[in-house]
Design a protein that fits this description.
This protein is α/β, with parallel strands linked by helices. 46% of the residues lie in helices and 11% in strands. A six-stranded parallel beta sheet has the order 3-2-1-4-5-6, sandwiched between helices.
């Protein structure tokens, strides 16, 4: 790798590095079925990218105490990891961009609402763990996106100022978190959870259909116009 150039790329995971949305949907569907509640596509769209405690409160209100919420979240993630362990692939353009950012001297981190075990599984299955100097997961934060805590902590662990960071996201809440943290944001529509208009309204600097459209030079220009 080239000497660090003072810039950083912070990556969301689900919907950005990989598309495991359907696995999450099926896991939540099973949890809700066990609790006597339907889980619809609209429920999924309204909660995707948030931390499990917030999702469970949205779905069930005040039905469960904190310990029960934690247990439900743990079970959901066990279901998810069991399915994901059968194989996960990077989305188009991801590996090339991650490698080129690495060679250009960008520090890189993961900033995700997912549990650490999920992130470690994805990074291991896809073979890209070595590119990330920091991994920030749900266990590291008290506030979920759109709060910027997850991205600010990633920048802090990399030792890079927020203004020199670009966030790769696919969700409106994640874009809002990046902007709230004073970072640039590239929104990716590869999995199509959100419209271009909604991502731009949330504050995305750039919206692309796939990461193959993004170059290191474009990221450098975005950070330092």
């Amino acid at each position: 790798m080239s000497e660090n150039n003072g810039n950083a790329a912070i990556w969301d995971v689900d919907g950005t590095l990989v598309d495991t949305a359907e696995l999450h949907f099926q896991a939540w569907q099973e949890i809700c079925r066990e609790q006597g509640r339907d889980f619809t596509r609209d429920d999924f769209a309204a909660t995707f990218g948030q931390r499990n405690p917030e999702i469970i409160r949205i779905l069930f209100g005040e039905r469960f105490n904190p310990e029960e919420i934690a247990a439900l979240g743990d079970r959901k993630e066990i279901l998810y990891r069991s399915a994901a362990s059968k194989g996960v692939e990077l989305l188009p353009g991801v590996r090339n961009l991650v490698e080129h950012l690495h060679r250009a001297g960008f520090a890189q981190a993961i900033g995700s609402s997912a549990p650490r075990a999920n992130l470690e599984l994805i990074l291991r299955l896809t073979g890209i763990a070595r590119f990330f100097a920091a991994v920030v997961s749900s266990e590291d934060t008290q506030r979920g996106k759109p709060d910027p805590q997850v991205f600010l902590l990633a920048a802090e662990r990399l030792g890079i100022a927020p203004a020199c960071c670009v966030v790769f996201e696919d969700a409106v809440a994640g874009v809002q978190a990046a902007r709230a943290g004073g970072m640039k944001c590239v929104a990716v529509r590869c999995v199509g959870h959100h419209s271009e208009a909604s991502l731009r309204q949330a504050g995305a600097d750039v919206v692309v259909d796939k990461l193959e459209q993004v170059t290191v030079a474009a990221i450098a220009d975005l950070l330092h116009p």
